[in-house]
Design a protein that fits this description.
Layout lengths: L2 H15 L1 H12 L3 H14 L10 H25 L5 H19 L7 E2 L6 E6 L2 E11 L5 E12 L10 E8 L4
Antiparallel strand pairs: 1-3, 2-3, 3-4, 4-5
């Protein structure tokens, strides 16, 4: 085996696994004593002073630092989330959006639906996270004619993420088409 090949292996091992593990690998590779392997590694290091050497335990230390940083970031994020307040306007908008999605699912042609704008919509806060929503939607029926459907609903929000439809529940729904 050429010295160049051995030097490349030693340089690679030093860079990736550190000095102590390199001596062990070299000992097994050359089937020599630890003393001989240690002497070879020390000579290599003195002959190649710019060789990067991985510090022992570097991976464990980097992993620990990463975990600590992630815990701090998550904790800070959770604290910030706890300070977020949901305004009455946000809740009313959520109630109107949920009701609009509910109505769309009932339509023959939901792609043609044009809802009364939320600004024009009538959303009333009833208390206990319940909202009464009144509005209308213009959409095509199965014959292609545009029809208006007036609707009224009571929806309940469970107090969690206002943008997640799973956190809303339809309590009652009526429309002038009998639905």
């Amino acid at each position: 085996m050429s010295n160049t090949n051995l030097d490349q292996k030693i340089a690679h091992w030093l860079k990736t696994i550190g000095k102590k593990q390199t001596i062990q690998k070299l000992k097994n590779y050359l089937k020599s004593s630890e003393y001989e392997a240690s002497n070879i590694v020390e000579k290599f290091i003195s002959d190649n002073p710019g060789t990067p050497i991985a510090s022992e335990g570097k991976i464990a230390l980097n992993g620990l630092i990463y975990i600590v940083v992630m815990v701090i970031v998550c904790w800070a994020g959770c604290k910030a989330c706890g300070n977020v307040t949901t305004t009455v306007e946000d809740m009313k908008f959520g109630a109107y959006t949920y009701t609009s999605a509910y109505v769309s699912a009932k339509l023959k042609s939901p792609a043609t639906a044009k809802f009364k704008s939320e600004d024009d919509g009538d959303v009333e806060m009833l208390g206990n996270n319940d909202f009464k929503v009144k509005g209308y939607v213009d959409s095509q029926n199965s014959f292609g004619a545009v029809m208006r459907m007036n609707f009224s609903s009571v929806v309940h929000w469970n107090g969690k993420d206002i943008n997640n439809p799973k956190n809303w529940r339809m309590e009652s729904f009526t429309s002038d088409d009998g639905q």
